[in-house]
Amino acid sequence: MPRLEHQIDIPQALETVFDYVSTPGQWPAWHPSSLRLEPGAERPLPAGARFEEDILAGGRKAHLSWTVVECQRPLVWVATAKADNGVTLRLEYRLLAGNGGTVFTRVLNYELPNLLLKFYNLALGQARIERESAQSLQQLRGVLTRV
Prior knowledge:
- This protein is of the alpha+beta class.
- The chain has helices spanning 14-21, 115-145, and strands spanning 3-10, 34-37, 50-57, 60-72, 76-83, 88-98, 101-111.
């Protein structure tokens, strides 16, 4: 199962960062893979909430059905998803106070359902997703620095 972990310092309070990243409707503003969220994800979502997202990740489009499985404001937010192509994902946001703001960690684990997707991931997809994930944190810091 591929695992991508990225961390960044953001010069904002824990609560500000947490509320922003746990609002999926904000994701297209900072994550290059997030294309569109269906209505209902315009606020910080608690455990048990469900939402839908269209993405373009690693060069492949997919529709994701998400469920928030853990929410400990302002420190931890975890959601799992099933894609229409059979891929499953686990997304973790971990936040700590530090460096005059927040240390934000994003962990993405995903599992591929078949050999074709596993081959594509090894050949092209994972490197692209890695770049997109790293870029997303830079863009997140930029957006939250302007707040």
